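User: I'll paste a sequence; please echo it back and then give the predicted structure.

Assistant: Echoing your sequence first, then the prediction.
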Amino acid sequence: MAAGDWEAVRRLAHQLKGVGKSYGFEGMSELGGRVQDEIVAGKMPMGEVQALVEYIERVEGYAGDKAVREPREGGTPTMR
């Protein structure tokens, strides 16, 4: 992957980190943060990127019965 591509991935990971935190998807926030930190450190975190993609694919409305459920009244998201 070209350096510019990793910068785009870093920006997206940063956005997902914030969105995940805002909406209670701690797993998304944690993975986004790890991807961002690894890229800033000059690494190519393919495993973390794949884990983040797989997490997003499980979010309710995206992947059916493997969905992550949104939190209820202050709870945290759960997976089916």
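Residues 3-79 form one domain. The chain has a mean pLDDT of 83.
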